[in-house]
Amino acid sequence: MTEKKFVLSGTIGTVVLAVGASLALTVPARAGSERIVDLAIGNDGVVQSDVGAPGLSVGDEFVYSDTLFRDGRRVGEDGSSCQVAKLAGAQITTNCVLSVRLPEGQLTAQSLWVKGTDTVRMAVTGGTGAYRGATGELTCNDIQTPRETYHIVLDR
User: What is the DSSP letter of 145?
Assistant: First the structure.
């Protein structure tokens, strides 16, 4: 009888472990904690600084500022700078840092961007206020057009 109890409890333990492992693989670690922030962008302007050799060269910088809208209402502003990191013919690769100020706090993000492409995915690197300790991804769509938007998915 003792041997049957041992085999039965071992079988039950294996089933519980298998079900638990299966659930762990199918349920995200932070189920329900993802936060989405969608913003429309009003481009305020861009300035280019020529800091290297005359003309576009590695080290030159583009500085941007925008007005941010949520549901048609002005809710904040942003500022970013992109330094030219690499030139390959007409392809300009820039290293960009973005700061977003909203009523709930600020977010920061960064990425490499090939100038002229209309979408870039940036790593959210931190935040303040309601966004303190933020991580996630900020996707800029339709860059430098009247339809530009930010779609921000925060993990925490």
Answer: S
Q: For 7-28, how does the pLDDT look when each residue is reduced to its tens digit (9 = 90+)?
A: 434 433 433 333 333 333 333 3
DSSP structural state of residue 111: E
The CB-side HSE value for 59 (13 A sphere, CA atoms) comes to 7
Return the half-sphere exposure (C-beta side, CA atoms, 13 A cut-off) of residue 51.
Answer: 13
CA atoms of 40 and 151, how far apart (whole Å): 9
Predicted structure pTM score: 0.76
Query: How many H helices and E strands in the chain?
Result: 1, 8
- How far is C-alpha 92 from the geometric centre of its chain's CA atoms? 21
CA distance 97 to 134: 15
Name beta bridge partners: 147: none
Q: Find out whether 150 and 100 touch, Cβ atoms under 8 Å.
A: yes
For the chain, what percent of residues have pLDDT higher than 70? 79
Give the pairing type, strands 136-141 and 119-127. Answer: antiparallel
Do residues 98 and 122 lie in contact, with contact meaning Cβ atoms separated by under 8 Å? yes
